[in-house]
Request: fold
Amino acid sequence: MGTLVKRVIEAGLPRHVAIVMDGNGRWAAERGLPRAAGHQEGSRAAERLIRFAGERLGLEALTLYAFSCENWNRPQSEIDFLMDLLEQFIEEQLEAFVQAGVHLSVFGDLAGLPDRVRTTVENAMRRTADCDQLRLNIALNYGGRQELTRASRMLAEDVVQGRLALNEIDEEQIGRRLYSASSPELDLMIRTSGEQRLSNFLLWQTAYAELVFTDTLWPDYTPAEFVRALETFQKRERRFGGIREEHV
Reply:
């Protein structure tokens, strides 16, 4: 894979890649295992990809969809396991993140998390605040509509308080109030497990992002397949609403 990695780096990497890590439950079901086993293996897949994206590729920003607002509707036992797994993942990876220069941030409502999980996440964000290699965004208790609602309320409050005039509201002002304000524009969104929908993920940010869908279940997703997705991205012609020059 070394030659392919070198080729995609030389061709120019996307600055910001987001992934919907889907298929943990189906991976477990296919093996006659409990869903928890799929989530555990999915955690290992995330660890592998984060390390590869930062250390081998030098990717600027990676956003992983870990837990949506809608996921609170799952059985309480599964929610508890996912919260424990998240806490364990961050605690185990924190020193490695610091050493590798991984800056951890969260897209989503931290206030809605269990206290112990929120404390762990906030501590990790503080510890990695000065890291400047890979920006790792974890979408946690996140929803795209929730994010846009939050941004709208912030804009309304600024107008009411006189900090912003109504006619000053534009795309830039909205973007500044999104969770992604400190990250580059999203270039590529990947979804695993064969599903081909956004599922309320980064609705604003995906406006002109390239989309890549794969049938691979998330626990089986490898750095090699990630590199192939990057290669696919590099073959796309991004026109951002324009037309090909030969058609001008």
Observations:
- The mean pLDDT is 95.
